[in-house]
Design a protein that fits this description.
Layout: H1 7-16, E1 26-29, E2 34-36, E3 50-53, H2 56-61, E4 65-66, H3 81-92, H4 100-105, H5 110-121, H6 125-142, H7 147-153, H8 159-170, E5 181-188, E6 195-199, E7 204-209, H9 215-226, E8 228-232, H10 236-250, H11 266-275, E9 284-285, H12 286-292, H13 299-307, E10 320-321, H14 334-348
Parallel strand pairs: 2-4, 5-8, 9-10
Antiparallel strand pairs: 1-2, 1-3, 5-6, 6-7
Helix pairs in contact: 6-7, 12-13
Amino acid sequence: MTQAIPQQEYYRALVDRDRAYDGIFYVGVTTTGVFCRPTCPARKPAPAHCEFFPRAEAALLAGYRPCKRCRPLSHPDQVSPVVQQLVDAVEAAPDKRWTNQDFAALSVHSATARRQFRRRFGMTFVAYARARRLGLALQEIRAGQAVVDAQLAVGFESASGFRDAFARTMGVPPARAESAQVLYAQWIDTPLGPMVAVGSPTHLHLLEFADRRGLEREILTLRQETGAAIVPGASPPLVSIQQELRTYFEGTACDFATPVALAGTPFQQRVWEALRQIPAGCPCSYHDLAARIGQPSAARAVGRANGANRLAVVIPCHRVIAADGTLGGYGGGTARKQWLLDHERRAFGGDAVASPGP
């Protein structure tokens, strides 16, 4: 049994514009008839004028209309039209070197592109486009193209500048491109906010909520373990996991068949495999999970293995709760953990008793 989050906590999240609660609840403002997401930039109402809802549909049924500023019927932090326009432009010409004239042709200010890309991807648009170009250059060199031809094809006029940028991004100079390892990253919108997915051409290596505590450290560790550069791009596992996440959040399927790469100790891998056997809607305790792997006294170690999981939702560490029925910890935030448990109980059944939401 899990515990409901007090409405005082929802109001605190509303006042603080706490991004961890985006998608977790919606607030109807009785004085305006409008409902908003927690991070809405509008002036905050008094507590007496707030009505909280677990889903946008519930607010609509109660007679509230969606706010035009925070757009509560869209995904939290859904990619903006400007970002989507620029991403599409990069994909249409990934070898393009961008200038101010190119931004002007799209009626986009370069400062707007820089600001919105940094908010969405943690890097500027120029850095994003450069990484995409260097990834393309790597593919061309591996396909047998001369280094100088690959350099010119992706818009680098200076050979030394190309070598330096390639080495900084890929970890090896262009002449050693065959030994370079590359992982591709994509941002996937979900009802709980964007997730970062990182994969090779064959396996998914990381899937986390973009605002997860310690995500930067996880990505750095992944780079060190694999010796790989991480650049924007697509691969079959990233396409697959995006589709599987869509059906999971829609409540139509909860099976994940995307191949995953599990980098951990033998004990951690046993825990992760046991996590994948927990049915949706049937959370268990850390002690129960320890017993399932044949080490009933290792509950604390099981908890640490849970925390080391880099594949949120796919390896469902959110399905493990404390022995007293409280939520316990979760890297993506306990509010998201509660939402995931409630979603699975409603969509996929099970014997769990979860909170009814706000």
